[in-house]
Structure formats: structure tokens, C-alpha cells
Write a structure and sequence with these properties.
The chain is α/β, with parallel strands linked by helices. The protein has 2 domains: 38 residues, no CATH class; 166 residues, 3-Layer(aba) Sandwich (Rossmann fold). It is built from 7 helices and 8 strands, in the order ααβββαβαβαβαββα. Helix 5 links the parallel strand 5 and strand 6. Helix 3 crosses helix 7. The protein is globular.
């Protein structure tokens, strides 16, 4: 065997089975992240609503739970972002907020949001938000009415404190019947700040 081939084989074996040295560990982590980025997500975007301020279980937070998950997705896949923003809930304590959210859900209200986004260039769309009264916040449904996801791969995710996915995935399927809705994921809100590994595992499992 030629020297060049021997060296190449030895390096491949070290990276595949060793990962013992600090430099090799760093290389391995970078390779894993690059592998996720190469999984057909080059034209992807994360659309999300996230509520900062007073939240159940985690208290008053400056960055919403869903925003943190969206940032993990962007970091690991290279996806762009669009945040659904409304100021209707700004500064509200938790109990008044959930009462308002319940009333919005009961009435089917569609609160206004800010901004817009051109989704024509994206193949994969992550859609995330907290679970409020069994589904996404109503402002997200306002946004759903304004976009077309026909033919796209749509991946719902949620942050919650016991509701899991609730009806979020099925509601996304109803909103976008001509999209491929798959790979849904949920994570506890109080876990997101230490839950990057869970998000990474989920992303690696997407096909």
C-alpha cells in the first residue's frame, strides 16, 4: 500500500473511532453539524411565534422558549428565520395572558402581526410556537391565512409544559393540505435552555 493511502486510512480510522483528543472532538462536532446542514435543508426557514415575559414554570424571561429552539435550528441547519410578532401580549402577567388566549381561541380571533416574508424560495418550513389551549397561539393562524405552503415540506414543533404537540401538527395539516407535514417535535419549555442536544437529535432524525 502506498504511503499516502496508509496515512489517509489512518486518519479516517482515528476520526471514526477515536475522537479522544480535544482537536479531534472539535472536528467531530463540526462534522456532525455539517451533516445536519447537508440534509436537504439548504433552502429552509424557521417560522415561529415566541412569548417573552411572564411564562409558566420558567418565570419572567427575556427570550421566549420557542425563540431559543428556533435559534438552535438555525445554528444546526443554517435555516433562515421569520418571527411572527404581535405586541398584543406585551407586558401581560401569566394569568391574564392565558385568559385572553382562551377567549381568542373560543372566538376564533385572528390578532394582527407585523411584517411579511416571501416563502417561494424555501423548500422546507419549520413552524414553531408554544401550546396555548391545545394548539398554537391564534396570531399564528392569522399568519397561516396569508401564506401558501403547497408542495413544501412543513415541520411543526412546539414548546409546552405538558401538552406535547397537542393538536398543533394536525392543525398545520388542516391549514396546509397540499404540503408534506412531517417530523413534528415537542420539548418542555423549562428544558429548552439546556436542551440543545435534544433538538440536535431530532434534526438528525429528519429525512
Amino acid at each position: 500500500m502506498k504511503i499516502k493511502n496508509i496515512i489517509t486510512a489512518a486518519l479516517a480510522l482515528l476520526i471514526a473511532t477515536g475522537c479522544n483528543g480535544q482537536d479531534v472532538k472539535t472536528h467531530c462536532r463540526a462534522s456532525q453539524a455539517n451533516n445536519i446542514k447537508s440534509q436537504n435543508m439548504n433552502k429552509s426557514i424557521v417560522i415561529f411565534f415566541s412569548h417573552a415575559g411572564d411564562n409558566y414554570s420558567v418565570g419572567n424571561i427575556e427570550v421566549g422558549n420557542t425563540k431559543i429552539v428556533a435559534d438552535y435550528i438555525t445554528e444546526l441547519t443554517g435555516a433562515e428565520q421569520f418571527e411572527i410578532v404581535t405586541h398584543k401580549y406585551d407586558g401581560m402577567a401569566y394569568n391574564p395572558l392565558i385568559k385572553l388566549a382562551k377567549e381568542e381561541s373560543r372566538k376564533g380571533e385572528l390578532p394582527e402581526y407585523e411584517g411579511d416574508v416571501d416563502l417561494s424560495k424555501y423548500d422546507t418550513v419549520f413552524i414553531g410556537g408554544p401550546v396555548w389551549w391545545g394548539t398554537y397561539p391564534q396570531v399564528m393562524f392569522t399568519f397561516f391565512k396569508d401564506i401558501n405552503l403547497d408542495g413544501k415540506t412543513v415541520i411543526p414543533f412546539t414548546t409546552h409544559e405538558g401538552s406535547g404537540l397537542a393538536s398543533c401538527a394536525s392543525d398545520v395539516k388542516k391549514a396546509f393540505p397540499k404540503a408534506k407535514v412531517t417530523g413534528e417535535f415537542s420539548i418542555y419549555g423549562h428544558e429548552v435552555r439546556t436542551g440543545k442536544a435534544k433538538v440536535e437529535k431530532w434534526l438528525k432524525g429528519l429525512k
